[in-house]
Please model this.
Amino acid sequence: MKPALIENNKPYMSLLAVFLVGLITGYLLFAGHKPIPASDDHSEHKEEVAQIWTCSMHPEVRQNKQGKCPKCFMDLILLDKSLDSGNPSVLKLSDAARELAEVRTAEVFSGTATRTLRLPGTAKLDETRVKHVTAWVGGRIEKLYVNYTGIPVIQGDHMAEFYSPDLIAAREELVNTAGNESLHRAVVERLLRWGISSQQIEQFKSQKVQNELVTINSPAAGIVIEQTAREGMYVNQGTRLFSIADMNRLWLIASVYERDIQWLRYGQSVECEFEAFPGIIFPGVISFISPVLAADSRTVDARINLDNKNGQLKPGMFGRVTIKVSVGPGGEVINPELAGKWISPMHPEVIKDGPGACDVCGMALVPIESIGIKTNSDGNQPLIVPESAVLWSGPRSIVFREKDKDNGLYEAVEVLVGARVDSGYLIYDGLEKGDRVVVEGAFKLDSEQQIRAGNSMMSPSRDTSLQEFTQLSSQEISPENMKQLEELIKSCLEVSEKLAADDLPGAAEAAGKSHEQMMALDPAAVSLTTAVAPMMPILLKIQASTEIAAARENLFGLDAVLRNLLMLVKGKLSFEIHENFCPMAFNNKGATWFQSAADLANPYFGARMLKCGSTRKVWDKEKR
Model:
């Protein structure tokens, strides 16, 4: 029986043998290897979580593992946390990254600012130097001495012989009234009004036999530019016979584009060039600016007086006009050459060293500063950065300031940019003289900031977001305007004080008072009212706010407009204003606010964090 049982279980015995052989082999192969501890698995997971993957196109996308961007499906890239500066406005670059970005910096400087305008122009006759010769009385042209245009004449040259029965009768009357002084004088005056010269009248008296023809002489020197008289032609009184132009002075009419009108002033010196005389500069002076803009070309005509005593220039020549405009620290046009000069209000081409009368119309001259021409910069010089340093994003302007060259630190700074001049842009706020800014490689730095979700063109900091700057003229800030503007600024500061006290009704009331004071500003100060205008919708929103959070959101916009006004009245205030910064406002994006008191009173948090923030700047009152 036993042999039969064993025989029946042979298949199972074979399987058991295979299992035992495999067990022994596995033990021999893996006996020297230790299992991975659970703590090591945890460490590996922890290291993986520390990695951040982001999208180069959408830097706001952050994931802790590699994959695809959920917005554009591009491959995510690993963010190098070792280069994180800890400040969203500051970018840290390694030596290799700086070399790859080819970063080059330049110093912010202050100095003379010049804006060069290049305009097309056309030479024309000086209309004030064109004389017309007309028939004094009816008659017939018997002979022409000037029988074509272009003939040069001098004063007194004969131009034509004229036959007139009225003149013959007057000549006879002149001789017949020789003994009657009153009648004789009346005849002489009649002949003078007809254009007969005193010399010709004396000839009439001395001639024994009266000639029936009268000679028409040139009343001025110049070139005959029009000749309508023909021999044998009968003309009536007042018919124009000749036109004579003095070409010793010409006008150059320059076409000024609409965007450049703001840079023009009477008395500015210009340089003109013509194709016919390459390399020769013809100096001139702006004597008139048209008050009307041409609708078709969108240009304004500026008239330039050119000396042409040598007769080189011809009317109709095309010229190129170069105007070098001196720009003051506030973006205003200045003309130091005209300091202390006096000008005619009706004929601005008449400029003299002192008071007197206009040579053309006899009006009293006025100081040149009285017609809005500024002749000095008050000893200040504008702050300028190279053009390539500024990155634009709508009304916002960004530059990268070099914080630490050795450690590769560059800070994204939002600046208040003024006019473009030849050497760059005027800077009104955000930088100081001596700062170094990136002039090459700025776009690459901004791209890196976007990848790291730092402050850049596309993601502004609430700290320095500014409204578009409106160029203002300090001459519009009269003592009366300054007093009104100070009252407006104080009311705006009161809005901030009420929000710091968590007083929404008080903030709304202060906004209403600010609105009333804004509407009471002198409407004649056009630039001032234009700069203040952005306040209106902001103040109305604060007035209508039912939640204090909404009022605080609008306070940020109000303070942005206030910054522009403070730039305008810098150094002219009768009180101090403190500019403070809270880094935690608006979800840690940061925001500035203004207050008159030195003690911090945060309007964005109120009593919750009243002292959160720091004072960044004190806008000084006027030094008396």
Q: What stands out?
A: The chain has a mean pLDDT of 81. The two ends are 131 Å apart (CA to CA). The domain at 90-111+382-451 is CATH 2.40.420.20 (conserved putative lor/sdh protein from methanococcus maripaludis s2 fold).
